[in-house]
Design a protein that fits this description.
Layout lengths: L1 E10 L4 H11 L3 E10 L2 E10 L5 H11 L6 E7 L11 E10 L5 H11 L3 E8 L9 E10 L4 H15 L2 E6 H8 L2
Antiparallel strand pairs: 1-3, 1-4, 2-3, 5-7, 5-8, 6-7
Helix pairs in contact: 3-4
Organism: Desulfatitalea alkaliphila
Protein name: ACT domain-containing protein
InterPro entries: ACT-like_dom_sf, ACT_dom, UPF0237/GcvR_regulator
Length: 184
Amino acid sequence: MKKFIISVLGKDRPGIIAAVTQVLFEQNFNIEDVSQTILQTQFSSILVVTGPDRMAPGMLCDLLSTRTSALNMHFHARELSADEGPWTACDCEHFVITTRGPDRKGLVAAITAVLADFNVNVTQLRAAFRGGDKPDHNVMIYEVDIPVDVDQGRLNAALKAKGEALGLEVNIQHQNIFEAINRI
């Protein structure tokens, strides 16, 4: 069996997941991992699947496009090699970083540049731009893996300094604490 990663993009509507997974099922694919979200009006999904050795990435995309043509979705697939495991630079702790403040261009780039400087891996990013009449009500939530050998004090200071320069309130919490407080 071959392992593939597939991305699916297009205008959101009911039945997308049903149609895509039905095609995969009919072609003897097994879904190992999946993530799906809607951003504004756009559907996005990433699937890791295993399937027949005869299948190639281009064939898989063509098959999905043809069989779900009424949905007008866009597909990309590539084969995953056996040695493509998860990123693990070292032992890591899971943290959640939240930023609050006015929306403006470059916020994500600036915060993630600080994280990259400390070899911190972003595993999930969510943003809620709900400013409207209150532009300070914008929130970004970064789920991150921080190597245990990172100086937490220096990282926290760097994030706070960058946040202050951008007009953002920045908080960092261990994931267990964040989940207990916010009941995710």
